[in-house]
Amino acid sequence: MLVQQASKLKDEILRLKKEKDVVILAHNYQIPDVQDVADFTGDSLGLSRQAAAVPQKTILFCGVNFMAETAAIISPDKKVLLPDLDAGCSLSDSITVDELRNWKKQYPDAIAVGYVNTTAEIKAELDYCCTSSNAVNVVKAIPENKEILFLPDMFLGSYVAKMTGRKNMHIWAGECHVHAGITPEDVTKKIDSMKDAEFVIHPECSCTTPLMYDVADGSFDDKKVSILSTEGMLKHVNQSDSRNFVVATETGILYRMRQQNPNKTFIPASDKAECQYMKMITLEKVYDALVFEKNVISVPKEIADKASLAINRMLEIS
Ligand code: 13P
Ligand code: SF4
């Protein structure tokens, strides 16, 4: 879209959201134009909190399906709109309800902890929900003698097991195709090209596991490596004295990093790390959803009631 057209559309969206008293929430991976019209931009946990706290009765959620569902579960009295109903998530698709029920049958006494990147139906089967920014704290809150079923992300699961020292965690072998595609080789290449850079890495990345061991055995002694959620990454780079950063997550995050830190340099660990689901949300679709108040996300009450138990347990811990 031409810059002029985009700017006109943005003005119209800003006018309309005020007129209709709609709040726009956007995930950190949204395209820059969409982030520009949002009232709040953040990670999964931050956006869930905003969804619960905002006074507006309508939330236009610029993100993917599971995020909009979570907002609808937390705020059943609000109308939640998703600009494109096909904006899904490969990670959330990596486990079905039947698979989870069968897994739970194998470990009847285990506590089921599920990442927020799951469908509402899956959340209804969980004891606890978690996000990348609070998964360690959620697992720490569970008595040590209790077995844990952690799903669906295997890289986040291994990270949490390592950080908590838990030996009784069973981890589902799911992954996000975007983060799994950021390999240790990508990171090594960037390390070699930017000697004084700091590394910020999302725990869903496949490079997280080998890097954790490298950090533990001192191979990164002269480097700073931090494993963080997207909002955690932003806070970290804003506060750090370093000038250069290699960022291992979906590339949408670079927009806010560069905006908030014009004197620092940010390079993606992999230029290919783009989530096509997040990128399905365009200004035109945001405008349409706002004008016609269409694509309402609703979760059946009995599923929402069960799912909200796991989500609220998480919100109380973090
Ligand atoms: P966070 O923004 O919560 O770190 O999650 C990343 C992600 O992959 C969301 O789809
Ligand atoms: Fe799902 Fe991965 Fe896209 Fe996040 S980046 S929405 S986890 S597919």
Summarize the biggest pleated sheet. 4 strands, parallel
Between the first and last Cα atoms, what is the distance in angstroms? 40 Å
* Order of helix and strand elements from N to C terminus: HEHEHEHEHEHEHEHEHHEHEHEHEHH
Spans where pLDDT lies below 50 across 5 or more residues: none
CATH class of the largest domain: Alpha Beta
Helix amount: 40-55%
Return Rg in Å. 20 Å
How many helical elements?
Answer: 15
Strand content: 15-25%
| Overall pLDDT level | 93
Order of strands side by side in the largest beta sheet? 2-1-3-4
What would you note in describing this structure?
This protein is of the alpha/beta class and about 325 residues long. It folds into three domains: about 1-85 and about 280-300, NadA-like (Rossmann fold), CATH 3.40.50.10800; about 90-175 and about 305-315, 3-Layer(aba) Sandwich (Rossmann fold); about 180-270, 3-Layer(aba) Sandwich (Rossmann fold). It is built from 15 helices and twelve strands. Helix 1 packs parallel to helix 14 and helix 12 packs parallel to helix 13. The model has no long low-confidence stretch (mean pLDDT about 95). The structure holds 1,3-dihydroxyacetonephosphate and iron/sulfur cluster. The site of 1,3-dihydroxyacetonephosphate has 10 residues, from loops.
